[in-house]
Write a structure and sequence with these properties.
The complex is a heterodimer.
Chain A: H1 17-21, E1 37-43, E2 49-55, H2 57-61, E3 65-69, E4 95-96, E5 102-108, H3 111-120, E6 122-127, H4 134-137, E7 160-164, H5 167-173, E8 176-184, E9 196-202, E10 205-210, H6 215-226, E11 233-236, H7 256-268, E12 272-275, H8 278-284, E13 291-300, E14 306-318, E15 338-346, H9 360-377, H10 382-389, H11 395-404, H12 406-409, E16 423-434, E17 443-449, E18 455-459, H13 468-480, E19 487-489, H14 508-535, E20 542-545, E21 548-551, E22 554-560, H15 561-565, E23 577-582, E24 591-602, E25 609-619, H16 626-646, H17 671-674, E26 678-683, H18 705-717, H19 728-734
Parallel strand pairs in A: 1-12, 10-11, 14-15, 18-19, 25-26
Antiparallel strand pairs in A: 1-5, 2-4, 2-6, 3-5, 7-15, 8-13, 9-10, 9-12, 13-14, 16-24, 17-18, 17-23, 20-21, 21-22, 24-25
Chain B: E1 9-11, H1 16-26, E2 30-33, H2 39-45, E3 54-57, E4 67-70, E5 73-77, H3 82-86, H4 89-94, H5 96-103, H6 108-113, H7 116-121, H8 147-150, H9 171-178, E6 182-187, E7 190-195, E8 212-219, E9 225-232, E10 243-252, E11 255-264, E12 271-272, H10 274-280, H11 287-297, H12 309-323
Parallel strand pairs in B: 1-3, 2-3
Antiparallel strand pairs in B: 4-5, 5-8, 6-7, 6-8, 9-10, 10-11, 11-12
Classes of the chains: A alpha+beta, B alpha+beta.
Chain lengths: ~750, ~325
Amino acid sequence: MVEEFSVIGKRVLRKDDVQLVAGRAKYVSDMFPAGMLYAKVLRSPHPHARIVGIDASKAKALPGVHAVLTHKDIPQIAALIPLGNPLDEYVLQEKALFVGDHVCAVAAETAEIAEEALELIDVKYEVLPAVFDAEEAMKPDAPKIHPELFKTNVVLDKPTVSKTGDVEKGFAEADRMFEDIIEAQHLPDACQEQRVNVAWWEYDTLNIFISTQMAHHVQTFLALGLNLPLNKVRVITPFVGSGWGGKLQGRRETHHLEFLAALFAKKTGRPVRTDFTREEEQVVSGAARYGVKHYLKVGVKKDGTLTAISDRAIINTGAYSKASQSNTLGYWNKCPNRLYEGNIVYTNLPAGGFMRGVGNPQGTLCVDSFMYRVACELGLDPLEFFLKNRTGNVDALVKGAEKFGWKEKWHKPGEKTLPNGRKHGVGMGAMIGWTAGYGSGHSSAFVKVNEDGTILVISGSCDVGQGSRTTLSQMAAEELGVPYEDVHITFPDTGTTPADRGSMGSRQMTTMGIAVTMAAKDAKQQLFENAAPKLGVKPEDLEAKNKRIYVKANPEKGISIAEAARTPYDPFGSTILGRGERRDGPLKDLIVHSAGFAEVEVDTETGEVFITKLLLAHDCGKAINPAIVEQQLYGGAVQGIGLDLMEGYVWDKASGRTLNHDLLEFAPPTLLDHGLNVEVMIIEVPNPCNPWGARGVGEPPLCTPTPAINTAIYDAIGVMIKQTPVTPDKVLKALGKVK
Amino acid sequence: MSSVIKNFLHFDPKTVSEAVSLLGRYGKKARIIAGGSDLLTVLKDRIKPEQPEVLINLKSIPGLDYIKEDTGGLKIGALATLDDIENNSIVKSKYGVLAQATRAVGVWQTRSMGTIGGNLCQEVRCWYYRSPRNFFYCFRKGGALCFAVGGDNRSHAILGGAVCFAVCPSDMAIALVALDASVKAVGSGGERTIKLSEFYTVLATALKPDEIVTEVQVPALKPGTKGTFIKFRTRKAFDFAIASVAAVITTEAGSVSDARIVLGGVAPFPYRATKAEDALRGKAISDSTAEAAANAAVAEATPLSMNGYKIQVTRALVKRAILA
């Protein structure tokens, strides 16, 4: 059955387009309340040190300085939310665990004075031995990073093991075995808008503007950390200049910032701003996407049937345990024997975090690259090999391959040289993404119908650029039968908007989407109940469409939605307020499938890679707004190009200091680097568990471009490059042109 | 972490001699500023132990932004912006290699701010040298060692490095040395002309403490001369060279009578590949002569631990520039 929608599935303009294009959108970075002080953080020059003394007397004496905070001045406040991960970081603490770790902070009249004051603070450090490489850190004699918590540098002192079948038995059944070690690099998330907060107190209530992906969660952990009742903490999030997982405060090493703003504001009685400079973005969040090294092994029959896969992952979480796993073996679900062992290891690098896709892009890159080579070495077409060993929804792979022209384009590795002298290659990657599964938290929303028939969606959904304000408005408009333009939606403000876990894990469409739809349904029911007596029918006889409430059996008989919203006694104001929720719990059908296909040319004399085509085929359930889905896919593809070819966190191996501390040295791609050769393909496999059939599509688009490009380079030159980013030096080395 | 510039005195001299006398008066405490696209980042990041107390602005001096041609060749005032040069009809039609190099610099925004004088005098991009708040007190700043030697030296010199292995960051300098250009420098001792090929040393420029570059002079090209500039970089815009080459080759009766091949991004100064030039002189340009010249260009390269790939990249670029 094809349902006719009037707003769902339409390419409506984003709610924010005009403001953004005109430069009128206000971000927290634009907030300068009168009397605001600037707080700046002194950062450790040592990768591992105990702070044995802080003399801030000169800084305190500097005119314009209002307060200095060290770990001795404030209680021990956990700088992360207790979600099962060890409490290993505090807002201010007596140890510094990476170069750039926070030591103490100053609030002053201007940023200049605050910085001058930082230079006057005399910190005595007891420098401790440091370790940066995860495998070095696993050795028994390595310096211990969190001896108060664990005996080793492996978080929880043991790996996480996930097992299906019996791999040893599987390996015994194999005709051939393959092994490889493939690494995905660390990356800063390079947020467009730097992290920023402005906090102030109104009597006993803390108010904070924060650039975040999770306003309601910030409220929870500020209340927990500062021992405040929840109704005395108000968190407001206006426009956000991207998040990438880096603004899941509470789970990231930037969490000290909002606490410091709140504490300084309390101490000084003034609004206080804390923020990151671009350098701090790169240095403190340098490893926001954690680096992973995968030790891979497969057993395979001659015909390409996998008998066993094992993957030992070494995950460098840096100074704090904010990294997650990188297990993508489940994609190879036809293989009966699978073993994953994930070691999350502390080192003296910046803490890893939940950057777009969390461990999925790393795992997909490494495992798919490996599998691609295994297929080629068996003399098989990698597409056939992938399809042979994966079940379930393979639409993205099959349809994407068809659109890409895989059958015509694929050739054995190293076989094709183009007339321009470059080597030609095609590659692919495929992933399965869990969007907003169990554990992703509640969402709730209100939908208010005004007496003029316009709609206000009251939702705490943080729109970090993914377009949730637009798509949620589309849902409310569809449900209530009003034009999209008649719906307005709030920004998150925990003083008024009901709870939402946040914009992460591609969950807004599938959780907040349900909450808003339910709230709209509830509001509609209230409208029906108001309208029924006026129309002399029962509420269940009514329908809402085209701004009208009318009798289903007799569409001529109806009233405007405005009239339905009003009561006879008071023409001003409407009491229609719908409430909707999506409670956390096991959810089905939230899995999205995606496949990426790349075509490249490799200049074998310079090692340069040219992407001539990059196709992303992606399932998203029903596309609520196809333009927004396409933007997510384009964005993922371009970000993937950066990840595979250009970007990477570089630190000095001796001192631990970040070397590419700006966006010049850390070079994200520009238009010239993708050459507009990106194509996207939406595959709609409706989700029966969602009122509109939608699934999330925020994180998954970053998973397949990197294996696609990486394997295309392998197909071109015949050698697999085992560590991203694939820069010219690595290509030339693989070609034997550099010693 | 710092993001703000320390306070300084700012002067707007109206003449070159006024600027020179200010420079003489404040000496090492002063820095010259024009477009500011390099200097402001140096100041914001406080990369050096000492911050300048005085900035002397050249933009207030009228008439220093000319681009003109006379019988001797092309004359470019130090304040001409890179965008002016890129779009100048004389440059485009007669000094194409210079236009190519200009287009390879930064992005349009920085080319619109940056001047030719500033481009030639910009500071190196070494990430140890540039690390904020003088994190690495390196040899170039007065310290004891070059951190790149034992550190991450993927972008450092393979030719001509000694005590410091930072590379000359200027694309313009590479093309201009290939064009045999000079700069006019004015100081308290008067005016002098310095060959651009002698302008750069490993640690500094040949300018005396009170000298200012006021003009770039490019001699007229001989008939039969062709120039090519090729830049190789990680990001295809807004990035400095991993390696670059400018080749200015004069051909008479089918064979090379003169060649100037200059390498960028691989040495602390524009590296004149004289062996490559010798290999080409007197020969007809062909795939094999180009290859021989390309091999000769990098024959003396001694890579550090991570930059050996630059030899191969440079070799490929030289060959392509000759054959272009």
